[in-house]
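User: I'm preparing a small set of examples for a lab meeting where we compare how different chains pack in three dimensions. I only have the primary sequence for this one, and I'd like the structure in token form so I can line it up with the others. Please keep the answer compact; I'll paste it straight into my notes.
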Amino acid sequence: MHTKAVMPVYTDQLNRTVTLPATPKRIISLVPSQTELLYDLELKEQVVGITKFCIHPKEWFRTKTRIGGTKTLHLDKIRELHPDLIIANKEENVQEQIEALAKEFPVWISDVNNLPEALEMIEQIGLITNKKERAEDLSKRIESAFFNFKPQTSNLKLNTCYLIWKDPYMTVGGDTFIHNILSLAGLENIYGSKQRYPEITIAELQTLNCDLLLLSSEPYPFKQKHIEELQAQLPHTKILLVDGEAFSWYGSRLLHTPAHLQQLQEEIASLI
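Assistant: Understood. Below is the structure token output for the 272-residue chain.
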């Protein structure tokens, strides 16, 4: 008599239970930073679909089937790929689309707002994809890299604003992953009392005595010309362009974030 194999049940970061194959063979990633993580976990053969924003690694961006944007998923394309695991994120994907997919396929959802949750996500994705040891090793290396990074600007208490968008200007509140990275960099987020991604004005920054204004390379591609525009309105504020991936990608790219933060410290020191 043949007994049917029992499929393991996992709990995702929204505390949902997800039944998955012991070793998923057809994975779709709906999140750029998690796509890169899957690459670093050596899941090349298993990953069959990614979003148009999954630009790392370049090899996958060129060769893997793209299933739309993070918030504009093409559900029919996803169905054609017959996934046995879809990896999504609470913030980066649209709830209605994810709920529709979850009725047909196993969907594991991350919810990452700080470094500990990012490390938990890495280890859990390692567990559900049968790459447990590799994921745990990566998590430990990231943790060690952050432990060994000592921010030199923390004693300066620089009032900092991090812009992610223009027209309208938008920044980050205290319940975001970017805010957590700013804190680890020893910077004081002047919008830390706000939630998620509030719209702000330059007049507000003028009254809040913003010492340091960071312009992110993503999702809005701030450039040198924007520094010049803003500097005219904020003559006493130090303004720098920063790598948005270093502040907002919460997968394996975190291994390199402390080095980016160290470089940022040196740039800030040269301005003060």
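A couple of notes for your slides: The chain has a mean pLDDT of 95. The radius of gyration is 20 Å.

User: Perfect, thanks.
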